[in-house]
Every structure is written in C-alpha cells, then in structure tokens.
Amino acid sequence: MSDPVKMALFLAQSVVDQPAAVRATVRGPTIMLRVAGGEEGRVIGRQGRVISAIRTLVRAADSQGKLGVDLDAPRRER
Question: So what's the pLDDT on residue 58?
C-alpha cells in the first residue's frame, strides 16, 4: 500500500468504533474504504464533512493530487 492509501485507512479507522474492520483497496484512481455495517455514517459525517476532509488530506498526500476516496458500501437487498 502506498502512503495516501495508508493515510486514508488510518483516518477512517480513527472515526469508527470498529477500526479492525476497516479495509482500503485501490480501484483505478480511487481508494475504496469498506467499514463495518452501520458505521458508514461515521465516515461520511454530518453533511459529508468527514469524508470531504479525508479526501482533501489524501489528495494532498498524493504526489499527483489525483486520488479520490469513496465508500465501498455493501449493497442492501430490497
């Protein structure tokens, strides 16, 4: 894992109740974060402020400034 990926993983682990369940994978130009069920809201934050801050910090750590961050939430059955 590269430094921006480690940073995204660390930041996501810092805001959830179950940090051991956080996973970070790279899909193209995007770092996908997966967290334990029910903790997506903690990573998103009020009005998206937490995920926005994580994206800003990861972009600053990326040498090219092109990496994005998104949540890889499991699909819910209807």
Answer: 94
